[in-house]
């Protein structure tokens, strides 16, 4: 299963630095980053494609990330996460 996340951020480079610093928490949640994109038309939009090994742990990571805000250094203004499966 995969998950795609969309983030509205204050600054893409600052967000990516904070995102990279949270790598251990993502690994602990069973998430593997497959790809990161920056919107070509709006530099404050980031998209991340994850491989999900454990949906419950991934959901817990999302809840933790939404609650703490410290893991993104205050760079995320909104986020959405969508679990996907191959059709």
Report a brief summary of the structure:
With 87 residues, this protein is an alpha+beta fold. 34% of the residues lie in helices and 38% in strands. The mean pLDDT is 92.
Walk me through this protein's architecture.
With 87 residues, the protein is α+β, with helices and mostly antiparallel strands. The protein has helices at 12-21, 23-28, 55-68, and strands at 2-9, 31-38, 45-52, 76-84. A 4-stranded antiparallel sheet has the order 2-3-1-4. β2 (31-38) and β3 form a beta hairpin. The radius of gyration is 12 Å and the shape is globular.
Oligomeric state of the chains present here: single chain
Question: pLDDT below 50 for ≥5 consecutive residues: which ranges?
Answer: none
Largest sheet: 4 strands, antiparallel
Q: Based on Cα principal axes, name the global outline.
A: globular
Which strand order spans the largest sheet, edge to edge or round the barrel? 2-3-1-4
Q: Mean pLDDT across all residues, rounded?
A: 92
What's the helix count? 3
- Radius of gyration (CA) equals 12 Å
Strand content: 35-45%
Number of distinct beta strands: 4
Query: What is the end-to-end distance?
Result: 11 Å
Order of helices and strands: EHHEEHE
Overall helicity? 25-40%
């Amino acid at each position: 299963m995969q998950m795609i996340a969309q983030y509205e951020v204050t600054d893409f480079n600052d967000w990516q630095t904070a995102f990279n610093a949270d790598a251990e928490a993502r690994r602990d949640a069973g998430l593997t980053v497959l790809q990161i994109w920056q919107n070509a038309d709006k530099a404050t939009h980031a998209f991340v494609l994850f491989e999900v090994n454990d949906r419950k742990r991934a959901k817990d990571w999302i809840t933790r990330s939404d609650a703490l805000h410290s893991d993104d250094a205050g760079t995320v203004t909104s986020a959405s996460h969508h679990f996907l499966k191959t059709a």
